[in-house]
Amino acid sequence: MTVTLLDHVAIATPDLDIGAAPYLALGLTPEGPDEEVPSQGVRVRAFVVGETLIELLAPTRPDSPIATFLERRGPGLHHTAYRVADLEAEMARLGGLGARFLSEAPSAGRAGTRVAFLHPKWGEGTLIELVEHPAGHGGQGHR
Fold this sequence. Notes:
8-stranded mixed sheet; alpha+beta
């Protein structure tokens, strides 16, 4: 298994400023500027907690997965993400165990990462993301 740590917990929100209010009240500060991830149709605001991030996700288009999630379930926990050293190898390993992915190939994620999502049915109702950081960024916490 190549999971090295919990990379982030993602929270869906229709508005980053409203969604950020509880985390700001807890004393957290955003890690850098908000970032748009066009491949996912989201704008992301991240907060560092130890070696893990809390990522707030707001849709940038009405057909994005986050917009659909918000329509069906409202704001709240969207997925958990786990850092892996070699995304393709982990996808092949899990695929060999019967895991289903939402797409066959990795896509671009926040801060230069590459990501792949496992189907929520495989995760017992939880969407799971695998995250590979660029070479030299496999370190701790901050991206």
